[in-house]
Write a structure and sequence with these properties.
Helix content: 40-55%
Shape: elongated
Radius of gyration: 25 Å
Largest sheet: 3 strands, antiparallel
Number of helices: 10
Organism: Microbulbifer echini
GO biological process, one term: proteolysis
Structural class: mainly alpha
Keywords: Hydrolase, Membrane, Protease, Transmembrane, Transmembrane helix
Strand order of the largest sheet: 1-3-2
CATH superfamily of the largest domain: Rhomboid-like
Family: Belongs to the peptidase S54 family.
Number of strands: 6
CATH topology of the largest domain: Rhomboid-like fold
Order of helices and strands: EHEEHEEEHHHHHHHH
Main location: membrane
Length: 326
């Protein structure tokens, strides 16, 4: 049986809710008990106790906020993510946008993906489900009512066919306004659905959890319509679908919010950089050359621009304050 040792003792009047959240966030082998008018933090691991003592002293004295502390477990000098029982770890605090710790040392690059209650991200979960529903409908030839029919009258980009005679105009005249959005639901392959669902999970959930579902619905609808229209007017003769345009609207939104609120890092900057590099490779035709698969580049760019625009308006109205880290 493990011998529980005292890591730190606090007065009985000390509020340990932040410490409890810290323990839960990293699934640390710690427990809090009360003995002789004191609150004791116990651990079966002496190494973990030695590592935590300086941190707890600084927190107890009011020097730092545990809710803004990041911890990354390491083994033999290499970061690892598995195993809550690992005792070797690096801990860093986030004091401000300059990335400096309170002791003046440069901040490490450790990052822990945040988690959010499912009830705070209902629209994101719905979009993920719609990605797979759209793929199911497509492979069963049930998606025609969701797509914008391509124009077949011209083989050139920016068809000279008057808009009033275009397939999109025909849809609108028939009252089928939903087609401005629903091509985003349809996916032509399972990998495409998986890729976009992952994008919504990583990008969409942090934005919805922080900004609220109403903002997220506006961003998704605007991004879907903008990306679909951009793709249709760029290549009206080509059938298209997928939620990539919405994902890039989220990329654009996150890029702007992180400029207005530098401390918000629920979405790693590296992921946004990879998304922009991917957009560039696709726009240059490199991915089509390598894979032989057509890419809706105009939808990506239209979605990105729409996300940038909404974020600029949102931040100009002081919305970025909702993205201040807890």
């Amino acid at each position: 049986m493990s011998q529980w040792i005292t890591v730190y003792s606090f007065p009985s009047s000390k509020d340990l809710s932040a410490l409890a959240r810290f323990i839960h966030r990293y699934q640390l082998p710690l427990r809090i008990t009360e003995e002789k008018n004191q609150q004791l933090l116990l651990s079966p691991d002496a190494g973990l106790a030695d590592m935590l003592k300086p941190l707890l002293q600084r927190w107890d004295s009011g020097e730092l906020d545990l809710d803004r502390v990041q911890m990354q477990r390491v083994e033999n000098g290499e970061p690892i993510s598995e195993g809550p029982q690992t005792t070797n770890a690096t801990i860093e605090t986030q004091r401000g946008p300059e990335g400096a710790m309170s002791d003046g040392q440069p901040k490490a690059s450790a990052f822990v993906l945040p988690t959010f209650p499912l009830q705070k991200t209902p629209i994101s979960l719905l979009l993920i489900a719609l990605c797979f529903l759209g793929w199911f409908l497509q492979i069963n030839n049930l998606s025609s009512g969701l797509l914008i029919y391509p124009d077949r009258s011209s083989g050139a980009l920016f068809s000279q066919t008057p808009f009033s005679q275009s397939s999109l105009a025909w849809h609108i005249q028939q009252g089928q306004w939903w087609r401005l959005f629903t091509p985003a639901i349809v996916h032509f392959s399972l990998p495409h659905a998986l890729f976009n669902a992952l994008g919504i999970w990583i990008l969409g959930r942090p934005i919805e959890a922080r900004g609220g579902s109403f903002l997220f619905v506006v961003l998704v609808l605007f991004g879907a319509v903008a990306s679909n229209l951009a793709q249709y007017f760029w290549e009206p003769r080509v059938l298209f679908g997928g939620m990539s345009g919405v994902v890039y609207a989220l990329v654009g939104f996150a890029l702007v919010v992180q400029r207005f609120q530098p401390q918000w890092r629920d979405i790693p900057t590296g992921i946004l950089t990879v998304a922009l590099v991917w957009l560039l490779l696709c726009a240059l035709g490199i991915m089509t050359l390598l894979t032989g698969v057509g890419v809706a580049n105009a939808a990506h760019i239209g979605g990105l621009l729409s996300g940038l625009f909404i974020a600029l308006v949102y931040c100009a109205l002081s919305g970025a304050r909702r993205f201040v880290p807890s």
